[in-house]
């Protein structure tokens, strides 16, 4: 059923709880997990500001990929970039582009006040995606 899974991660504790969930779903279905980390950037006063380094983003993906491999599931990973505040849209687009059967993500991420004001990424993904969305708590 879930042969092609997209796992969204930002390295937070909640996102880390989603890793074994995605691994188990893939293992049961004989499927693959594509780990996606969205690296945000902001444009302020004509300057492009990266909110994290490329190395930090790659390390987040590597940790999740390594854990999924240890669980025995097929996996690969990718860092994608998007404008600040557009993470949910980027995840939904990535899942669509990869023909995912499901998106797995944590219930909360790294956002704090912005998440309360704008709504969580998980909430937005649930509303924007036509795929099955599994939210790990």
The CATH homologous superfamily corresponds to: HUPs
CATH topology: Rossmann fold
| Averaged pLDDT | 90
| Gyration radius, in Å | 14 Å
User: What is the second-level CATH architecture?
Assistant: 3-Layer(aba) Sandwich
Beta-strand content bin = 25-35%
Query: How many domains?
Result: 1
What can you see in these coordinates?
It is a single chain. This protein is an alpha/beta fold and 137 residues long. The protein has a single domain, classed as HUPs (Rossmann fold). The chain contains 5 helices and 6 strands, in the order βαββαβαβααβ. The chain has helices at residues 13-29, 54-70, 87-97, 113-118, 121-128; strands spanning 4-8, 32-44, 47-50, 74-83, 102-106, 132-136. Strands 1, 2, 3, 4, 5 and 6 form a 6-stranded mixed beta sheet that branches. Helix 1 packs across helix 2 and helix 3 (87-97) crosses helix 5. The model is unreliable at 114-119 (pLDDT under 50).
Briefly characterize the structure.
The chain has 137 residues and is of the alpha/beta class. The protein has helices at 13-29, 54-70, 87-97, 113-118, 121-128, and strands at residues 4-8, 32-44, 47-50, 74-83, 102-106, 132-136. It has one domain (1-98): HUPs (Rossmann fold, 3-Layer(aba) Sandwich), CATH 3.40.50.
List the helices and strands and how they pair.
Elements: E1 4-8, H1 13-29, E2 32-44, E3 47-50, H2 54-70, E4 74-83, H3 87-97, E5 102-106, H4 113-118, H5 121-128, E6 132-136
Parallel strand pairs: 1-2, 1-5, 2-4, 5-6
Antiparallel strand pairs: 2-3
What brief labels describe this structure?
alpha/beta, Rossmann fold, 137 residues, 5 helices
């Amino acid at each position: 059923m879930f042969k092609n899974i997209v796992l969204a991660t930002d390295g937070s504790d909640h996102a880390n709880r989603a890793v074994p969930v995605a691994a188990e779903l893939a293992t049961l279905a004989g499927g693959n997990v594509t780990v996606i980390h969205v690296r945000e950037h902001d444009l302020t006063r004509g300057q492009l500001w990266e909110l994290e380094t490329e190395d930090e983003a790659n390390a987040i993906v590597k940790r999740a990929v390594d854990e999924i491999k240890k669980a025995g599931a097929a996996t690969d990973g990718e860092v994608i970039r998007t404008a600040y505040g557009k993470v949910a849209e980027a995840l939904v687009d990535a899942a669509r582009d990869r023909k995912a059967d499901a998106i797995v993500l944590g219930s909360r991420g790294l956002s704090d006040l912005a998440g309360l004001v704008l709504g969580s990424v998980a909430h937005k993904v649930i509303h924007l995606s036509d795929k099955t969305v599994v939210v790990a708590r």
